Amino acid sequence: MKNSARIGALAAGLALSLGPLTAPAQADAPTKEPCATQTTQVARAEAQLAKVNAVFAKKQAKVKKAKKAVVQADTRAEKRQAVKKLKVAKERRTKVVKIKKAQVQRVAKAKARLAKCLASQPTT
């Protein structure tokens, strides 16, 4: 009797653990819409570009704030510290500029792939 209970528990455990693997999820089902992948890629690339633009705006604001701090510095020590902060802010902004440029290229290429896909679709 104990063995049959153990076997039953083992079978139930396997069924529960392997259940999600046997039935595909609805989200995994391919869409019937033409160029769905390219459309998704464009949307994701544009969303990421919006995030990068927000980060760039913050970094640009920090550079402006650091420039203002350099101008308003009274002593040599304050000015030296403000110049260091300005240098760091400019370096960080430069990194974001490179990231932004790369993301703009990704968006452009994704849009080109979408346009190519749409052009190859037969018109109805």
Architecture overview:
Residues 1-25 form the signal peptide. Keywords: Signal. By secondary structure, this protein is an all-alpha fold. The chain has a domain at 33-118. The chain is built from 3 helices and no strands. It has helices at 2-22, 36-72, 76-120. Helix 2 runs antiparallel to helix 3.
Write the layout of secondary structure elements.
Elements: H1 2-22, H2 36-72, H3 76-120
Helix pairs in contact: 2-3
Features:
single chain, 124 residues, mainly alpha, 3 helices, 83% helix, signal
TL;DR?
The chain has 124 residues and is an all-alpha fold.
Number of helices: 3
Tell me what portion of residues adopts beta-strand conformation.
under 5%
Oligomer: single chain
Number of strands: 0
Mean pLDDT: 84
What does the radius of gyration come to? 28 Å
Main sheet specs: none
Shape: flat
Query: Which ranges are low-confidence, i.e. pLDDT below 50, for 5 or more consecutive residues?
Result: none
Helix content: over 70%
